[in-house]
Design goal:
Rossmann fold; six-stranded parallel sheet; 17 strands; elongated; alpha/beta
Length: about 400
């Protein structure tokens, strides 16, 4: 590892900690989620070690309904760490500076939404961000900066890349564990079979991941919208839009040559669905892809036979990585693919990383435990970038 961690930091200092607490907001109410639980481990450790802690985080984007204050986030974080958490409705104004100066060992203070500061956005070079008023004002108030926001590490925002250039900088526990797990597929050596379950809605992401990892992964198991587009490339009459959803045709136009080339060059590494599921009079119905003459329904999941084919491959693997869901698992009728492969992974003694946006939610929804997997990532975009070998600017700043 090429950055400093909390193990390198002396106890009892005043630290500025960047978390990623960005959460769904429903009717103005911030929803609790896995991110609070993960970051609570870092904050609890800092509290126990007598640090004076000020927290930076963002929520939403300007102009969107979820662009709200972090006041509710402070309360939710307090519940997770079982410790008082204060809040100030400024990020680096006079009241914020006053409250930071009043911190004692074990205190936690959440500063206001970083994206309410003009200096936070847009994305600019770290050198530019390090010279903003936001960074220059806060840097002298702390002994060290800690970045725990791996899931936002692909963003070149002031709170993520500016501070490491002007302060002693360290990785928090979430940053440390996410980095290790999500780079394992490229950096770790496995003696046995490496399998990747690839789904989701974005074909470009799938292609980029598969292209980057084609020499590392032995078998790609496909599903979701991307999987249906690969079936189209294989000659099946699926992967077309049949309504106004515009999920397939535009992506096909943009990616068809790459998909066809990938299928031609790596057919022995790519396992496609053998059946697909759809809604029929409110129930789940399944159809073998060989029996499809024309696409007339929306396919919402891979079928049961596909899960039966994928599961033995998973159980024979030394390492399994998941990127994206195989179907619309939020609807229990169409959870068979996603939940089925997750259950196969949970039953297998293998190194596993589960990621890809909301996919990890299926673990809790369908009665599985996180400890049945090697690592359950809370990162979306950063996870994809790690899988494609792209640099994460927030990690690079820590390494510098």
């Amino acid at each position: 590892m090429t950055f400093q961690t909390l193990d390198d930091l002396d106890d009892g200092q005043r630290v500025l900690v960047r978390l990623d607490l960005n959460s769904p907001v429903e009717d103005g109410t911030v929803q609790d989620n896995r991110r609070f639980d993960r970051h609570a481990e870092t904050i609890s450790e800092l509290v126990d070690r007598g640090f004076e802690v000020a927290v930076l985080a963002h929520q939403g984007r300007p102009g969107r309904d979820d662009f709200v204050s972090l006041a509710q986030h402070a309360d939710i974080l307090a519940d997770h760490i079982g410790h008082d958490v204060d809040f100030v409705d400024e990020t680096y104004g006079p009241q914020a500076i006053h409250d930071i100066a009043d911190l004692d060992g074990g205190d936690v203070l959440v500063l206001e939404n970083t994206r309410m500061c003009d200096d936070e956005l847009p994305e600019e070079d770290p050198e530019v961000k390090s010279q903003t008023e936001f960074v220059q004002t806060l840097k002298g108030e702390f002994d060290a900066y800690i970045n725990d926001a791996y899931s936002a590490a692909h963003r070149s925002h002031a709170s993520l890349v500016g501070f490491p250039l002007v302060m002693d900088a360290y990785a928090g526990r979430v940053m440390e564990t996410e980095y290790e797990a999500n780079t394992a597929i490229a950096e770790k050596e496995f003696d046995g079979q490496v399998t990747m379950v690839v789904g989701g809605t974005k074909a470009t992401d799938v292609i980029d991941v598969m292209t980057h990892l084609d020499e590392t992964v032995d078998d790609f198991l496909l599903g979701g919208i991307a999987g249906e587009l690969f079936l189209r490339a294989a000659g099946y009459p699926v992967g077309y839009d049949i309504d106004d959803a515009n999920l397939y045709d535009e992506q096909w136009e943009q990616n068809s040559e790459k998909i066809e080339s990938m299928l031609e060059d790596h057919r022995d590494q790519i396992t496609l669905a053998v059946d697909l599921a759809y809604e029929d009079d409110g129930d789940r119905a399944e159809q073998a892809v060989d029996d499809i003459e024309e696409k007339s329904v929306s396919y919402l999941d891979v079928g049961s036979e596909t899960v039966m084919e994928y599961s033995p491959i998973i159980r024979d693997s030394e390492a399994v990585f998941v990127k994206g869901a195989l179907g619309m698992f939020e609807d229990e009728r169409f959870s068979v693919g996603t939940a089925g492969v997750l259950e196969a992974i949970a039953d297998t003694d293998c190194f596993s990383v589960i990621g890809g946006g909301d996919t990890s939610r299926a673990i809790e929804m369908y009665g599985m435990e996180e400890n049945e997997f090697g690592h359950v990532s809370i990162a979306g975009g950063a996870y994809i970038r790690a899988l494609t070998g792209a640099e994460l600017v927030g990690v690079e700043a820590l390494q510098r």
